[in-house]
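Entry 14. Structure prediction run on the chain below.
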Amino acid sequence: MKSNRQLLVVFTLLLCTFFAKAQDITGSWKGTLKVQGMEMPLIFNISQENNVLKSTMDSPSQGASGIPMDETTFTDNTLTILFKQAGIKYTASLEGETFNGTFNQGGNALPLTLTKTVITLPGNPDLVSSEAELKALSSLSKGQYKYSVEDYFSNPKGYTFRFSPNGKYLSYRERDENGKQHVYVKNIETGEANRVIVESEELIRGYGWLNHERLYYVMDKGGDENNHIYAINLDGTNDKDLTPFDGVKANFSELLKEDKDHIIVELNKNNPQVFEPYKLNVVTGEITQLFTNDDINNPISGYEFDKDGNLRGYTKMKDGVFNDLYYEDGEGGFKFMKQLSWKDKFGIIAFDYSTEYAHDAYVVSNLESDKSEILLCDLKRMKVIEKVFSNPNYDVSSMGLSKKNNYAIDYFSYEGEKNVLIPVSDTYKKIDAKVNEVLPNMQYYVLDKTEDETKFMLYVTSDKLYGVYYAYDLQKDELKEIYNTMPQLNPVDMAEMRPISFTSRDGVTIHGYITLPKAALNGEKVPVIVNPHGGPQGVRDSWGFNPETQLFASRGYATLQVNFRISGGYGRAFLESGFKQIGRKAMDDVEDGLKYVIDKGWVDGDKAAIYGASHGGYAVLRGLTKTPDLYACGVDYVGVSNLFTFMKSIPPYWKPYLKIIKEIWYDEDVAEEKLIMEEVSPVNHIDKIKKPLFVVQGANDPRVNIDESDQIVSGLRARNVDVPYMVKYDEGHGFGKEENTIELYKAMLGFYAKHLNEEQREPIKD
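Output returned:
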């Protein structure tokens, strides 16, 4: 018979076990990982449903939230959380109100202590419009239309078609009934297709072939842009995260044609501000660092590898605004060759493998011309051998080489009013002739080719055709349709996208595009949506099918897109003429473009909206404060509102470029420019906004922090202005998820219907 002492011990143990099992661990638990001197906050949100534990993970420093974990258990006082895709396992014991344990990832075991916390959403959730309010806004767009918003913005059923290198398989993405876009591989001979890569909560940001048997795909977490690169066999086995490092951004650098088992990637693993190259085994996941980028004040900004994976040179930033070019010295090291301004362009397109001299390379350069041109250079002597291709009016930056034909030139291309491809080789002359014969007046791109260069994947499009994939068989001289990405949109019903040019108020020729609905072509003045592009530097609007402008045209709105000064493609002088002019002369160009289309009689100047994303969103806010009477309303999508806070909240991997950003935008340390920043920061002029505004934001945006939108909304709300505010907590810099995109455009159409078509439009009154 047990003694009373023994019974007491047994009772105590049973009681402790009972309380451990019964203890409620649901809620949010916060801790901080210390990784190589850096602190990284993590939050696990634990919930229980039908007696089953579930959890999500937030990484606030990376702007990621709500990442679903695969498995969560709490047994015998031990918490275990698994996230298989990222190779994460957290195991901890509960001690009072604290979890003490170990965070395992990628072979690293780091201590992590979690304490109970109250989770808060990014920004100020109290500002966000309710679902009911946004649905009410959407409902204002009435009328019977042939095509719905879903017709324009549902992801294509199938797209991104690619041949395997040996031409035996065809890969593609296909959308399921839930809008998820999986990757399939089809055996061309048998016709059998299998789903290889499954898209779940996180979006597949891109994919491609690594070799005959293996593919890669790219995903981030909740739109935080910290991409991971994964690899998988064509039968769906050996699915591996090749870059299993939390909070690290992976840039795909080189696909080594001569080495089927390895690729080159760049990671900001050792320091979030800079990237270093690694050689990755795509089968085993073995990773080897190839070079060190340890001068944080003068970091390497680009690496040049040859087809065999040998590092041949690199570009090192100097004092934040210069680029020092280094090239191999023949003794295993690198020597300084040339210093360039960051405004100079001198980039290697490809080494010239057609010659035995290993140092010849094709480069795109603007060192000796205003327009970028393609040169053949001797890199060892840093000497131009010959000018290979140029255009007097536009930058040239693209060419193709044929590996099969000893790396002879296949084509050149550049973007003018439309994309122009100039065939050089007999192969590309045959392709060009066949496309022009079968599909006249279309624009085409060669997306892919097999290793033997007998089969080519083409994408054919126009301003009225979303896009059709074609396979071209060189031996048969045959063009075969593979897939129409948007068969529900009949090109006959689509609107024309017309190139335009005009002279700005200070005498500069500006180019752009106007998409006109049928009513405008019949002589009716229609409402217009002015759509400044993002960037802004080096970016431009292009001719081709644009679902936004086509949707707007179907509802009776014209769309104006202006390639204002600082846009890319028109030469160095035009680009640089927009530096220090953001919100000023760049904005004048947009206004002059609107005046031009009004004077042409195409649009009604009293019914002009302004809408844009990123810099375009900034342009919306600037337009409503700079010229308060010009626009009837505006839609700001992930736009900058305060240049001071924008500069302070840029992602860590932008920080080495901060001096350049300040040269393009403005530098608050220069007194005169600080005054300009105050002048062109819309948040300082909220009192001037007197037209309706709709604000849209992704909560996890690493580029334009949610605070940029909150500032504008709270400022207008303080004036009792009704500002619809849409925030998606699973998105970043622009919406990537189909359901969010469709909801956005429905709300936008309701907003336009209210403020462009209704007679009761009134300005905001204080």
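The first strand starts at residue 27 and ends at 35.
Filed with the rest of this week's runs.
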